[in-house]
Structures are given as structure tokens and as C-alpha cells.
Design goal:
single chain; alpha/beta; Rossmann fold; 3 domains; six-stranded parallel sheet; 18 helices
Length: 432
């Protein structure tokens, strides 16, 4: 029986246009209806080298449903190559052309000899959400563009994290991950963000290692890279926020890539010394502030729910109430992710629910006894329910409607400090 889904936190797989957009000078070509493209454009909140409002689109209609839209797709690709200066063209399909049987892959294959690469990713909404669409785009790059090579660059690592734009802090997080890994003496390669484009994609097969920082998104990609290029990967499930998890992350990377242990510990000590210096300066605020209750709830995708739960429990000693993962995590990953919520300091355990229905989430938050002012970190949907409970609310996940983020980040030692600042800024405002 069909049911209503209230306040879902993701988009359809065609939302992978955001993934393409995050690669400098890469252009999505949409084979979909005009409504699909427009709706997704409104939800990206981004522009860049190519604005979503000018992405080439076949805008298929009723006639194309009957007779097929492959000719329209062919002409759209041909004209995009003529009039738009890009380095990579990525055809993304919506539901209609895949339902009626358009062979989009065959059309794209006609452009194999083009001066600029054209690839194809099946991103029909019925195949999954934009988290899966993100993986489809990266798989398309691996399968259709990257070539096998025997060349490996000493110390080069590819860094993969979560979904650009869906993650509010994706750009800053990636830059900070690069910085931290670089301090170990490794050379980093990322394909998303500032000055990251086709040259970074070309470097992927040359890397000695792949590092995936994500509970589940991207795991199929690094496995595919290992199979095609023989590149081993480290799957670090927790986005490192704060000293506890970031130090664990750096030690794991160092061990995996065979970085000198003394050098690694020197990097960690430098960061931890300053991190705890800042914490000590505000120890009284943490100990005496009565408007941050010990219990908290995070409502976000698997990446942030896990990362922030670990950070607040391990670094600040707060107690997790029920936590909610909203990205429709595939069932085969859920058991391993749930186990991570049992892996907290001080023998703390957190109950976690994989729930996509905002109504059910809000009912559980409303009916839980937080023994004081609750702390809720989530999407904009959680603002009203938190205010009704006289709680403290911070918008850290999609959808975002009350802040603008350029390159802020929550990753690492500095990111943990920023998150503390944001949380306690909300708390102290109660006194004004």
C-alpha cells in the first residue's frame, strides 16, 4: 500500500547533476522532462561555472514518449559540444527516457572520438536517490573515461567523501581533509571543488591509495577502482570531527599508507595541543551552562548523524538520545553503521533509527523526555519542533534555509571548534 512520505531529505538520482557541477568545467546534459530539471535547479542553491538554469536539456514531451527521444538527445549533445566550452560532458537520464526504453548509452557512444569526452550515467529517479546518483556519476567516469595505466605516483592518494551540495559543508570539508592528509607528507588528489577538474580526474589511476571517508556513499566506487586499477582503499566510516576522531583518522591513514609513526604523532600533538588549549579557555562555559542539556539528537544523513554523535559524546561528554539517519541508507550497510553508534567512549551507546519519514521523526523527538532543553542538530525541518520544546537548534544538514555557507567546514580539529562555537552561540543567545 502506498504511503505519504513527509519531509524527505534527499532528491531523486537525477540530482547527481550536483556531482557533475562540483567538478570544475564539467557540464551535465539532462535527458529528462523540463519539470525535472527546473525542480532540481531550484533545490541546488548553487551556480558556478555553469548555472543549473542553463544546463542543456532535451525537455522531452508527450511526443517523445510515443516515438522516443534519442534523436533529440543526439542533437542536444551535438549542439552542447558546439556552443558550450567544457572539459567533460556528462549525460544524465531522468525517469521518462528510461521507462520508454531510450538507449542513451548508445547515443553517447557515437561521441567516443570527440575532442572532449562525453560519458553517460543512468540516473532515473526510480533507481534511487541522489546519493546513489552520485555513485553512478563516479562509476561512469571510472568505466567510460579512465584508462588503465601502469604508472603510479609515489605518495599520491585520492580522497573521496560525501555528496557535493547535498552536504552543506562539502567544499570546506574536502579542503580540510586534503590539508590534514597532506601534513602527513602525502600528496592528495580530489576531483571536486576549487581548481579540481579534468586533470584531477586524469590523475585518479596514478594514485597509490584511495581513502574513502563516508559511512557508505562511494564504497562501490573505490571497490571499482581497486578492481580496475589495483588501487587499495581505506574505508574510514566516520567523518572525523574534533580531536578524538581526527587523531584516530590520521593514525589510520598513516598506518594504511605506511607513513612514519613519529611524524604522524608530531602532527597529531601539534593539533591536539591547540585544540585542548581552546577547550580549556571555555571550560567554565561547558560546565556551568545550564541551557545545553546533556541529551542531544541528530537528524541527518549517515555521514553527519554518525560523525556528530561521536563528536558530542566523545569530545564534549554529552549523552545521545535517539539518533536518526535520513538518507535511505541501503539495507546491506545498515548493520555495520548501527554498530558504529555502539563504539563510543565512556561505554556510551546510542540508539539509531534509519527513518525517512519526517513526521515519525518529529513524533519521537516530541515524545522523548530530554530532562531539560534538548539539543537538536538537523535540517531546517527540525527548527519548528525544537522551538516547540524550547530546545537549542542548529541547522547542519539538508534542507538549509537559515544560513549561507561558502567554505566553512566541521571536519578535523578546527572543524570541531567551529561546531562547538555554533552550538554554544545558539545556547548563549538565550541570555539576551
Amino acid at each position: 500500500m502506498a504511503k505519504l512520505l513527509d519531509k524527505q531529505r534527499y532528491k531523486c538520482a537525477l540530482g547527481a547533476m550536483q556531482t557533475v557541477q562540483a567538478i570544475e568545467r564539467a557540464l551535465p546534459i539532462l535527458h529528462s522532462g523540463p519539470g525535472c530539471a527546473q525542480k532540481l535547479s531550484e533545490s541546488t542553491g548553487s551556480s558556478g561555472y555553469f548555472s543549473p538554469n542553463i544546463f542543456p536539456c532535451t525537455s522531452i514531451n508527450e511526443k517523445d514518449v510515443v516515438f522516443g527521444g534519442v534523436k533529440k538527445l543526439d542533437s542536444t549533445i551535438e549542439n552542447a559540444l558546439k556552443v558550450i566550452d567544457a572539459d567533460l560532458y556528462v549525460v544524465l537520464t531522468g525517469c521518462i527516457p528510461e521507462i520508454v526504453g531510450d538507449d542513451s548509452g548508445e547515443v553517447v557512444s557515437r561521441y567516443e572520438g570527440s575532442k572532449k569526452p562525453v560519458i553517460y550515467a543512468p540516473t532515473a529517479g526510480f533507481k534511487g536517490n541522489n546519493y546513489k546518483g552520485h555513485e553512478q556519476v563516479v562509476n561512469a567516469i571510472i568505466n567510460q573515461y579512465l584508462q588503465k595505466t601502469e604508472e603510479k605516483e609515489e605518495g599520491l592518494v585520492n580522497i573521496w567523501a560525501d555528496v557535493p551540495y547535498q552536504d552543506l559543508f562539502w567544499l570546506g570539508n574536502l579542503r580540510e581533509l586534503e590539508k590534514l592528509v597532506g601534513e602527513l607528507g602525502l600528496k592528495t588528489n580530489v576531483i571536486f571543488g576549487y581548481k579540481k577538474g579534468i586533470k584531477n580526474i586524469d590523475a585518479i589511476p596514478k594514485a597509490q591509495y584511495n581513502i574513502l571517508v563516508s559511512p557508505w556513499v562511494g564504497l562501490t566506487n573505490v571497490k571499482k577502482l581497486e578492481k580496475k586499477f589495483g588501487t587499495p582503499y581505506l574505508h574510514y566510516k566516520t567523518l572525523p570531527i574534533g580531536a578524538t576522531e581526527t587523531s584516530k583518522f590520521l593514525r589510520a591513514v598513516a598506518e594504511f599508507t605506511k607513513v612514519d609513526k613519529e611524524k604522524t604523532e608530531a602532527v597529531i600533538k601539534k593539533h591536539e595541543d591547540y585544540y585542548y588549549y581552546l577547550i580549556e579557555r571555555y571550560a567554565d562555559l561547558f560546565l556551568e551552562n545550564r541551557v545545553i542539556n546533556k541529551q542531544f539528537t541528530v537528524v541527518a544523513d549517515a555521514q553527519y548523524t554518525l560523525a556528530i554523535t561521536k563528536f558530542l559524546a566523545n569530545d564534549l561528554g554529552l549523552i545521545p538520545a535517539k539518533q536518526f539517519i535520513t538518507d535511505d541508507t541501503p539495507k546491506n550497510y545498515r548493520e555495520e553503521i548501527a554498530a558504529e553508534f555502539k563504539n563510543l567512549n565512556y561505554d556510551i551507546n546510542a540508539e539509531v533509527a534509519f527513518e525517512t519519514d519526517g513526521f515519525k521523526i518529529h513524533e519521537e523527538i516530541k515524545n522523548h523526555d530530554y530532562h531539560g532543553y534538548p539539543l537538536v542538530l538537523g535540517g531546517y525541518y527540525e527548527k519548528e519542533i525544537t522551538e516547540s520544546l524550547k530546545g537549542n537548534y542548529l541547522n547542519i544538514s539538508w534542507p538549509v534555509q537559515n544560513k549561507v555557507v561558502f567554505d566553512s567546514f566541521y571536519v578535523g580539529y578546527s572543524g570541531g571548534i567551529r561546531l562547538i562555537e555554533d552550538i554554544y552561540t545558539v545556547a548563549v543567545q538565550r541570555f539576551n
